[in-house]
Design a protein that fits this description.
Helices cover 29% and strands 20% of the residues. The chain is of the alpha/beta class. It has a six-stranded mixed beta sheet with strand order 1-2-4-3-5-6. The chain starts with 19 loop residues before the first strand and ends with a strand.
């Protein structure tokens, strides 16, 4: 991509040259320490060749590397094939792909996790803020215009006195945001063109184009201002935007599933955007193209099929992932506003998915549970019920299937024990939250409605020992050892390949 090669002047003649691919250093265990010494500030991606997210990142990562090199920056980008360099990946706690870490000052210990978007501009902006001044000083209107033109979003403080109290507050706020450039100017021509007094302006290449700060100049107020205006009113879910969507402070998301090719696409998008204006900073409005193959897992997560779109759903990502469904399928600004208002006022009930009860649900050794019969079976006070919560696509679940079926066969004639399974991608229970696949929970007999997580070996012997002990050997009270699913994990909803590398992990996350 780029023909210019950076020659490290510190390298000695005997040192082996580190290979590059499209300006990205190819790192291995054998040259990793050498790379850190030669390039004190280096961003490293740990990837898997089969990972869809990694493949999507390749062109943007290479573009960012080229942009930095063209500017003469000392900051470099590197990559490690974690499936080959397993020792190096393990050393830095790599559990998912891609994992991106920033090594500053040549230090190997405690690298900084990369936390911004996956587009070239996002990567470059984040690195510049990590290695350069938090706030750039602009000395002319041309420099101001250049910053605005070169960035999707930029925040500029106009201060006649750059040492004023307000300017210092501005600098403090800038330190807290990694993925947006902050700059300051006192240039008279810039004032004449953009403001009439000391002010802070967020410039952006979407929606209204800019927003002026209005309020008391505090760090908290400035951060709230930036975070509520830095994203479009409606943001499309893609590989590149996922980190911005799930890494932000807004944890209530409303999603519109709609094919881009629909004849009324623009009309519905306009209605959706109009409703979004009333909930800035409260609810993030997200559009998902229901025709894109990579988005089918997300549709499945919400119990939707392509032919059911367009559709609206709302989800919260705070303590638990709770879904809401509007009563009407009509998509207008008025109906969406009403739906969101009921949500913000706490007047909506969660939407729980459930399949119909199969006629033969109890005819096999492993009983089939769905939302509509779960509580009746699992909380039967006369039974000890052991349930596998699974996903049809989960590799770990597929590996467990023959063992679970043997367990069901072993206890099929036991009047006190039920071995069951439930597809948690199509069924949800208010009293049981599933965070990863497979999740195994035991519901002992009695009137207390107890729930015990199984954390032992996934073997027939381990399961049998657990059941024979009444859930005392290999289990823990529900909640003691559960893995939380935060917003960023939603980024893996459309990553089917993630399950194929299950040797080191014991579950597949949602």
């Amino acid at each position: 991509m780029w023909k210019l090669l950076l020659v490290c002047t510190l390298a000695v003649a005997s040192r082996a040259e580190i290979a590059e691919e499209e300006d990205v250093l190819v790192l291995k265990k054998s040259n990793f320490d050498e790379a850190l010494k030669a390039h004190p500030n280096i961003l490293v991606e740990f990837y898997a060749p089969w990972c869809g997210h990694c493949k999507a990142l390749v062109p943007e990562y290479a573009k960012a590397a080229g942009m930095l090199k063209a500017e003469g920056s000392e900051v470099r980008l590197g990559k490690v094939d974690a499936t080959e360099e397993t020792e190096l990946a393990q050393e830095y706690g790599v559990r998912g792909y891609p994992t991106i870490k920033f090594f500053k000052g040549g230090e190997k210990e405690s690298p900084k996790e990369y936390s911004a978007g996956r587009q070239a501009d996002d990567i470059v902006t984040w690195l510049k803020k990590r290695t350069g001044p938090t706030v750039t000083t602009l000395t002319s209107v041309d420099e101001v215009e250049s910053l605005i033109a070169d960035n999707e979003v930029a925040v500029i403080g106009f201060f006649k006195d750059v040492n004023s109290a307000d300017a210092k507050v501005f600098e403090k706020a800038a330190e807290a945001i990694d993925d947006i450039p902050f700059a300051m100017t006192s240039d008279d021509a810039a004032y004449s063109k953009f403001v009439t007094k000391d002010d802070v302006v967020l410039f952006k290449k979407f929606d209204e184009g800019s927003n002026k700060f209005d309020g008391e100049m505090t760090k908290e107020n400035l951060l709230a201002f930036v975070k509520s205006n830095q994203l479009p009113l409606v943001i499309e879910f893609t590989e590149q935007t996922a980190p911005k969507i799930f890494g932000g402070d807004i944890k209530s998301h409303i999603l519109m599933f709609l094919p881009k090719g629909a004849s009324d696409f623009q009309d519905k998008m306009d209605q959706f955007k109009e409703a979004a204006k009333g909930f800035k900073g409260q609810i993030l409005f997200i559009f998902i193209d229901s025709d894109v193959d990579d988005n089918q897992r997300i549709l499945e997560f919400f119990g939707l099929k392509k032919e059911e779109c367009p559709a609206i759903r709302l989800i919260t990502l705070e303590d638990e992932m709770t879904k809401y469904k509007p009563e009407s399928s009509v998509i207008t600004a008025e109906s969406i506003t009403k739906f969101c208002t009921l949500f913000t006022e706490g007047k909506l009930k969660p939407h729980l998915m459930s399949q119909d009860i199969p006629e033969d649900w109890d005819k096999t050794p492993v009983k089939v549970l769905v939302g509509k019969n779960f509580e009746e079976v699992a909380f039967d006070s006369s039974k000890n019920v052991f349930v596998e919560f699974y996903a049809p696509w989960c590799g770990h679940c597929k590996q467990l299937t023959p063992i679970w079926e043997k367990l069901g066969e072993k206890y099929k004639d036991n009047a006190d024990i039920i071995v069951a399974k439930m597809d948690s991608t199509a069924n949800e229970i208010e009293t049981v939250k599933v965070h990863s696949f497979p999740t195994l929970k035991f519901f002992p007999a009695g009137d207390e409605n107890k729930v015990i997580d199984y954390n032992g070996e996934r073997t027939l012997e381990g399961f049998s020992k657990f059941l024979e002990s009444g859930g005392k050997d290999g289990g823990a009270p529900a909640g003691d050892d559960e893995e939380d699913l935060d917003g960023e994990d939603m980024d893996d909803l459309d990553e089917v390949e993630q399950e194929s590398d299950g040797e080191d992990d014991e579950h597949d996350e949602l």
